[in-house]
Design goal:
This protein is mostly helical and about 100 residues long. It has a domain of about 70 residues: 434 Repressor (Amino-terminal Domain), CATH 1.10.260.40. Helix content is about 65%, strand content about 0%. It has six helices and no strands. The two termini are about 25 Å apart.
Length: about 100
């Protein structure tokens, strides 16, 4: 388990704090350009929704940085939280070696 105490940034926060202000385009237009509902966009922005592979493809195209960046951010965020949520249970699982 990672020893980092600060959680990775949710990709929605990056979108909200860095990307959208730089684009200077209304959120409704961003949702329309992405082909998603405003509710879906707002769920990402308030960090209550994860970036799915489908959304990552859309964001990667919109921003020109590809889907991998968005998926890696979401995976790092999810893994950090899962490691902490399951820490007590994971301690009881032995590590087995093949051969």
């Amino acid at each position: 388990m990672s020893k980092t105490e600060r959680p990775p940034t949710h990709p929605g926060a990056v979108l909200r704090e860095d990307v959208l202000p730089a684009l200077n385009v209304p959120k409704a237009a961003i949702a329309r350009n992405l082909g998603i509902s405003r509710q879906q966009l707002y769920g990402l922005l308030d960090e209550s929704r994860p970036v799915s592979p489908q959304i990552a493809v859309r964001l990667g195209k919109l921003c020109g940085n590809g889907p991998g960046l968005w998926l890696r951010m979401q995976a790092a965020y999810d893994l950090w939280h899962a490691e902490r949520e399951l820490a007590d249970q994971i301690d009881d699982i032995p590590t087995l070696a093949a051969g």
